[in-house]
Amino acid sequence: MKPNAVLVRYAEVFLKGGRRPWFEARLREAIDRQVSAAGPFRVREMHACMAVAHRDSKGWDLPDIEVGDALNAAIGRCFGVVSWSPARIVAREISRIEAEVAAIADEDVAGAETFKVESSRSDKDFPLDSMELNRRLGGVVWERTRVKVRMKDPTVTVSCQILPKVAALFVETRPGPGGLPVGSSGRVLLLLSGGIDSPAAGWLAMRRGCEIDAVHFDAAPYTGPESRAKVEDLARLLAAHERSMRLHVVPFGALQADLRDGAPGRLLVLLYRRMMVRIASAIAAERGALALVTGENLGQVASQTLENLAVIEDATAMPILRPLVTYDKMETVALARRIGTYETSIRPGEDCCSLFVPDHPETAGRVARLREVESRFDVEAMVAAALKGVEALDLP
Ligand code: ATP
Ligand code: MG
Q1: 175, 203, 228 — which closes off a domain?
Q2: Per-residue pLDDT tens digits for 7-24
Q3: Which atom of ligand 1 is nearest to the CA of 324?
Q4: Is 336 helix (H, G, I), strand (E, B) or coil?
Q5: 283 lines ligand 1 (CB under 6 A)
Q6: Nearest residue CA, atom 6 of ligand 1?
Q7: In whole numbers, what is the pLDDT of the chain averaged over residues?
């Protein structure tokens, strides 16, 4: 089949009742941004679905388009899309539909073992009902190909959807990324290290409709420039899903050295984390972000025990979202590969959290103890000094 459109389906946004038009507008905006960057495409609204068509299309007589890698990838970045199909959109006339189905029969059904036609009508003014359409179009296919009809699990399914203005024909349905359109749930701030987990956590938050900004704590000169470069690359990969992202890079090395000089080594990771969430919360407030997001997980490393998560939360009033909390490492790695961040994450580059830290950091921190150690420091001044040195990068 030579497509002249891509049919894009969404479902979850329907659940939002009165907000439906607003959700549809966010989705439409996101799809339009993605596909228009991928080639000569734009999005068109249809009945309960959308169509990606040629940029210059007017009316419904659509020029053919090429559904290649760039468009595939662009649709893969459209959160809220449940499934999609390369399609032929044609006038709602039975003779036109039959002619298109004849072409599809030659191209996609001939030589197959079995087929069926699956029709549906979104309104009842079309002269044929779905059963009659199935029979009529099935007849066209059979006449040309002599391929057997099979209702259960046929090799090829030719779908025909009668929409209010046009008919859509397609033979394949591909999964979209699901979730909710970016920007429909508000803004969050992702704590982005150079590791595997935090980019995956950021992607999951975006898939729930969050627009994300990122913050990275940079221990230069104790860590090399490759750590910083890696984080920028990861931020760019995530930024491709939304209109723009601000990456905040916080100078953290001096603060870490101060903590090392006046606190027990066993507590350093927790002290770093508490500082991170304090600084991040200040940045979030300034950006209008309503929550922090981390790649933390339960029990994956010694510092990420329930006790220690509680110790970290004690340092901020802001909610901390941890999308990966129930993931196995293998599941996180699989996700990172699928979303294309894995290869960047595994590049060499040290993270600030391992600086000055002994082999056996605390696994069961207590809030009172952390507060006591922190009382030896001027925490507010340390936070203020770090905030003063923040570098902001607007991506892409
Ligand atoms: P990741 O793979 O994301 O680095 P991890 O399994 O290595 O996670 P940790 O290194 O303990 O776990 O970090 C836990 C979380 O703390 C990270 O997922 C990230 O959200 C945050 N974090 C750690 N280091 C930094 C950093 N240098 N800058 C920003 N956030 C950080
Ligand atoms: Mg890490």
Answers
A1: 175
A2: 999 986 656 677 888 888
A3: 18
A4: helix
A5: no
A6: 197
A7: 94
